[in-house]
Design a protein that fits this description.
The complex is a heterotrimer of chains A (480), B (141) and C (314). Chain A has 480 residues and is an all-alpha fold. Chain A contains 22 helices and two strands. Chain A has a two-stranded antiparallel ribbon. In chain A, α2 (17-34) packs parallel to α4 (57-74) and α2 crosses α18 (358-390). Chain A is globular. Chain A starts with a helix and ends in a 9-residue tail after the last helix. Chain B is an all-alpha fold and 141 residues long. Chain B folds into two domains: 4-59; 69-135, no CATH class. Chain B has five helices and no strands. The mean pLDDT of chain B is 89. Helix content of chain C is 44%, strand content 18%. Chain C contains eleven helices and ten strands. In chain C, α6 links the parallel β6 and β7. Chain C is globular. Residues 13-23 of chain C have low confidence and may be disordered. The chains are: A mainly alpha (480), B mainly alpha (141), C alpha/beta (314). Chains A and B meet through α9, α10, α19, α20 and α21 of A and α1, α2, α3, α4 and α5 of B.
Chain lengths: 480, 141, 314
């Protein structure tokens, strides 16, 4: 057990004006950068790391935590306002957020996203601070077989998103799985379907596929539908009810169970390394829709839909730190980037982190709480600015968004190759949407595909079975 | 008219799956390795499902129809413009091509107001350059 | 080892001190890109970024660190091999994936060992075979016996060479190893801690778990014993004539102007010799700085190819 004085010392390190400045700075940077189409929270963090070289350890981590949390909230902004999500979990928010924004209530939609995001995040932070150790042990018990079962469950709830034709849902899901097999196979690392492009060795770049299919194809669709007069990208109802531009306490409170459920799902999935926020956001969304008495209102601007998606995907981020801080295992790219910052500042993460660096960890906890409050505050301000920006004519918003997607993907993949992949997937996304095939389902199975394959392989290894006897014609055994 | 869209989609998808299953996967995916799950198992299985579902869609199409042919034509135009822009960027770099790309995009959308055109063509690319090259010290594509 | 390292570093620092202004003769024409063959957030990335930063401070050049992922450096070195040799790019990779790809699909690759001018190394990773602390064996021999008398033994591996190495051990001893693929060291640790696998590979991050009593070390997979565990024998000492020596190394396009290569080597060497880099190497890779310098870096790769052929059993 950690000495109480260490906890106090940690918190007092966190709640200093100096530290506050760094968190605030981080949150502001996160809000600015995370909302730019094509960049998003993880890239914002990766870009920010070199700037922390010169800082002390706690301010450096505080800054990164701020960037991460700020970026996470504002990542939903382009998804809600112009339906161009940069990540699949923001796509879940867009399902109801964008229709609401289209009804002339962009501020209401983004504010609901902000409030439920901060709620989910705070929930998982509290879980992290209080009961991370037992939860980490639970996560360890979830072996490959259990993870595989969870993936199959996640695929099955996708049917809640399918819409009119089940057959088309299956096609979209299967296509996603198929594209996920591009790149090295999980056991022998031999490249598959890369056609000599070694850039694809580790698979199709996720950023390119997500931004191409979700953001770029939507931008092109919107552009091709413009006739005659150039309008604002988003319209705010001026004359309407004041309540149309804010979230009332009654509305927030009516979503409490939705947010609690979303936060709970996000926390559990986040504690499990490697699954990520996409599954959490869609699981939460589908369950909320299934449990609702009015499922037909979903996809048409239901606040519950926004709350479900945002509370879950934000809860994942705090919970990703559970395996990191208790066991030394990063659960996501952003957690790995926090590790990287630790290492640059001379701290090696591992199972003894709490013992060796208790004061720093509690400082980090204090910082996270602080960041949540600042996020709420900066977020309110930031959303107003973004809604103003997006009220500019469509011509400038969409042409700038295209340039930013090119630059963002180019930076994330370090070169034009990733941008070309993005354009190809924009075409694929456009074709799929035109044919009535869901790109969202495609993206989810695409994101989960490689984890699904490796979990299958791990499960077979542990159960000493051989599926190739069933699927392939020539059985192969190890060692051959 | 309304039933044709799904039939075409189904046929295209089934063909895509079939070509993958019969020609591409056997050639570009290694199957000789010893492992718990062979490298070609999932590609073959998924492409097989795609053939089945595509064929099924041809025979049981939904009421989905392709609307707005003019919109699709415009979309093709935008995609071609972007492809051309990327090709030019690989030759001359972002700094020179981005303003031209923005200009042609905005003109195609129908923007004629000089102020907005100026902002989109000069302001935005300059801001991006400032952020990426000056502030972040990274290179543009 | 440590002392030799120290001496070489000191000697190197002295030669630098007495050969003034050499690096001043040549300067990169634009920004100097330090390309890292792995994704953001890993140990290679962390070391690469610090090296880039120190180089920038020491030389005043605009050094930019970039991640170029794809096959553990294969995509990055393919790109570097194709570039005009202007000395404005340095690739940082790990030898194993490069050598394995050269041996396995040399004809299809866009490069071979002669496509590059080598600049040095920063460290040799200490790769360990580890097991859960409660595993009923303490050495490789015991592990082999256990796998035979029980229903096989599950080993987590995060990279192909590890599987190849244990494949050779399995072949020579008749052990029944079941290989469980993971997405890297972190996942291997998770499976070990969760009890799903009994043994696994780790290149440094396990040291904290040795301290905490969760894991024990079965063998060093390197050619030599590890600095933190001088009593644990190597796989070779356990009777299997095989080893893995993963080096983090640097190279640029072949045919780069000799003065440029010289300047890059010197700048990189100075950065690697700094305290800051030493610290990050200790934190990210749990090992000491080791710069083989250009000639020995190339020799390491040439000799390594022969070793990889042994791994493939040819």
């Amino acid at each position: 057990m950690i000495d109480f004085s260490i906890i106090l010392a940690g918190f007092s390190d966190a709640f200093t004006l100096w530290n506050l400045v760094f968190v605030l700075f981080g949150v502001v940077v996160g809000h600015l950068v995370g909302a730019v189409p094509g960049i998003g929270p993880v890239m914002a963090m990766a870009i920010a790391i070199p700037f922390t070289f010169g800082f002390d350890t706690l301010p450096a981590i505080a800054f990164l935590v701020g960037v991460n949390k700020g970026g996470l909230v504002s990542g939903a902004v382009p998804a809600v306002l112009i339906n161009t999500p940069g990540t699949p979990d923001a796509a879940a928010t867009a399902l109801d957020g964008y229709p609401l924004a289209r009804q002339g209530k962009p501020l209401k939609a983004t504010k609901m996203a902000l409030f439920s995001s901060v709620t989910g995040d705070t929930f998982s932070d509290i879980v992290l601070i209080t009961v991370s150790a037992p939860l980490a042990i639970l996560a360890l018990r979830m072996g490959p077989v259990e993870v595989l079962a969870l993936m199959i469950f996640a695929f099955s709830v996708l049917s809640g998103l399918v819409g009119k034709s089940f057959l088309k849902g299956v096609i979209a899901a299967t296509l996603g799985l198929l594209f996920a097999t591009v790149g090295a196979d999980p056991e022998n690392y031999n490249p598959r379907l890369i056609f000599g492009h070694y850039e694809l060795y580790d698979g199709l770049p996720l950023v390119s596929v997500a931004i191409g299919m979700l953001a770029m194809s939507e931008i092109i669709r919107r552009l091709s539908e413009i006739h005659g007069e150039v309008k604002s990208a988003v319209s705010v109802q001026d004359a309407g009810n004041r309540n149309d531009q804010r979230v009332t306490w009654k509305e927030y409170w009516s979503c409490r169970y939705t947010m609690l459920r979303g936060a709970g799902m996000g926390t559990i999935l986040g504690a499990l390394p490697g699954i990520g926020s996409t599954a959490a956001a869609f699981l939460s969304y589908s369950t909320t829709k299934a449990l609702s008495t009015k499922p037909e209102t979903f996809g048409k601007g239901n606040l519950q839909g926004i709350a479900a998606a945002e509370s879950a995907n934000s809860a994942v981020v705090g919970a990703n730190l559970i395996p990191l801080l208790t066991l030394g295992i990063p659960g996501s790219v952003s957690a790995a980037l926090i590790i990287s910052a630790f290492m640059i500042h001379g701290i090696q993460p591992g199972p003894l982190l709490f013992q060796d660096q208790g004061r720093l960890i509690y400082g980090l906890f204090g910082t996270m709480i602080m960041a949540n409050f600042l996020n709420l505050w900066v977020g309110q301000l930031g959303l107003r600015i973004w809604v103003k920006v997006v009220s500019a004519p469509e011509s400038i918003i969409f042409s700038s968004a295209i340039l930013l997607c090119i630059v963002g993907v180019g930076m994330a993949t370090n070169g034009l190759f990733g941008v070309v992949v993005m354009l190809i997937f924009a075409v694929i996304g456009y074709l799929m949407t035109s044919a009535g095939l869901s790109v969202v389902i495609f993206i989810i199975t695409f994101f989960l595909g490689s984890r699904f394959e490796i979990s299958l392989s791990q499960s077979l290894a542990l159960m000493n079975a051989d599926i190739t006897r069933i699927v392939g014609s020539t059985p192969s055994h190890w060692p051959c | 008219m309304s039933f044709r869209a799904d039939r075409i989609t189904g046929a295209l998808i089934a063909t895509f799956g079939g070509v993958l299953y019969l020609f591409i996967i056997p050639r570009f995916v290694d199957s000789s390795q010893s492992s718990w799950i062979r490298p070609d198992t999932i590609p073959l299985a998924t492409s097989f499902v795609i053939v089945l579902c595509g064929a099924f869609l041809v025979f049981k199409p939904t009421a989905h129809s392709l609307q707005n042919l003019r919109g699709h034509f415009k979309a093709v135009l935008f995609f071609l413009l972007l492809a051309l822009g990327l090709y030019a960027m690989s030759m001359f770099g972002f700094v020179y091509i981005a303003p031209l790309l923005a200009l042609s995009l905005m003109l195609l959308i129908g923007e004629r107001r000089l102020l907005w055109l100026g902002l989109g063509v000069i302001g935005v690319p300059f801001a991006i350059w400032l952020l990426v090259v000056r502030v972040l010290e990274r290179s543009l594509p | 080892m440590k002392i030799a390292n120290l001496i070489s570093t000191t000697l190197f620092a002295m030669t630098l001190a007495f050969s003034p202004a050499q690096a001043d003769d040549w300067k990169p024409s634009g920004p100097l890109k330090l390309q890292i063959g792995f994704g953001a957030g890993g140990s290679t990335d962390t070391m690469g970024r610090v090296i880039a930063k120190v180089m920038k401070e020491q030389t005043g050049w605009n050094v930019i660190a970039e991640n170029k992922t794809g096959g553990g450096g294969v995509a990055m070195f393919t790109g570097i091999a194709r570039m005009p040799a202007k000395g404005n790019v340095i690739g940082m990779g790990v030898n194993m994936p490069i050598m394995i790809n050269i041996v396995k699909r040399g004809a299809e690759l866009g490069f071979d060992l002669d496509s590059f001018d080598y600049l040095g190394t920063v460290a040799k990773a200490q790769l360990a075979l580890i097991a859960r602390a409660d595993a009923p064996f303490d050495d490789l021999k015991g592990m082999v016996e256990y796998s035979k008398s029980n229903d096989g033994l599950a080993i987590g591996f995060g990279a192909p060479p590890q599987k190849l190495l244990m494949g050779v051990v399995g072949k020579q001893s008749g052990a029944d190893f079941r290989f469980v693929a993971t997405k890297g060291e972190a996942e291997t640790h998770k499976l070990l801690l969760g009890g799903q696998v009994m043994a696994g590979f780790s290149a440094g991050t396990h040291v904290k778990y040795l301290e905490s009593g969760d894991f024990k070390m079965i063998a060093s997979a390197n050619d030599s014993r590890h600095s933190y565990a001088p009593d644990t024998p190597t796989v070779r000492e356990a009777g299997f004539d095989i080893y893995l020596d993963p080096y983090f190394y640097f190279a640029t396009t072949a045919g780069t102007d000799a003065a440029a290569v010289e300047a890059l080597t010197t700048a990189l060497g100075n950065a690697i010799a700094s305290d800051e880099v030493a610290e990050v190497v200790r934190n990210a890779a749990t090992t000491e700085v080791l710069n083989l310098r250009p000639a020995n870096t190339k020799k390491m790769l040439v000799d390594g190819i022969e070793n990889v052929k042994v791994l493939f059993g040819s």
